[in-house]
Amino acid sequence: xxxxxxxxxxxxxxxxxxxxxxxxxxxxxxxxxxxxxxxxxxxxxxxxxxxxxxxxxxxxxxxxxxxxxxxxxxxxxxxxxxxxxxxxxxxxxxxxxxxxxxxxxxxxxxxxxxxxxxxxxxxxxxxxxxxxxxxxxxxxxxxxxxxxxxxxxxxxxxxxxxxxxxxxxxxxxxxxxxxxxxxxxxxxxxxxxxxxxxxxxxxxxxxxxxxxxxxxxxxxxxxxxxxxxxxxxxxxxxxxxxxxxxxxxxxxxxxxxxxxxxxxx
Length: 265
Fold this sequence. Notes:
CATH topology: Rossmann fold
Oligomer: single chain
Largest sheet: 5 strands, mixed, barrel
Number of helices: 6
Structural class: alpha/beta
């Protein structure tokens, strides 16, 4: 009998508990490109293991994603941090993309924090600045859900969690994130289209994970780090190494902000 994606996540969660000795997690974070150093500020690292040691996880294929799972203790809370993710453009399908989120919720996490590196379409965003995700536009033409699974996405990026983030940083901007399939960057014409559709940010991740987290009943907080200006807005060429470099330069400031927000959730 073929194992369902949910059953694979439940098995991975059981293995995670056995490896870490943690019965259940309170919060899970997915650390996108440039965000991994922020995990060092979230609390005391307990156990760390390659994600590929657990059922259903794949080895990372993208620079800036270590493929490590870290179990963190922050006071009386247990936090799970995925230092990297699987992207849709890697060709493994939607279940592989959302397996980490499903595993985290199966391990008890009822809050999922999704971070990413994004191109800035809204010209008010400076490179290196963090932006709360208020909503998304799914341009991947894919969904992690199958069959007659109808999930309300009205409040995908939870308003209460976003309010907590703004209490920590009142000037933190919000924006709409557009997910493209990648791995190529967008053309200037596509960026103009996305801007006309109401997008402020563009990237290649997060949206499918957010949908899966909502299906599983978790609340979602999303944050982007603007690592470049989107194609055609400034005339510069786009480069993944630029994305990683901006992440490194911003690691301390965005890491401290993220840690302060997580402490309040």
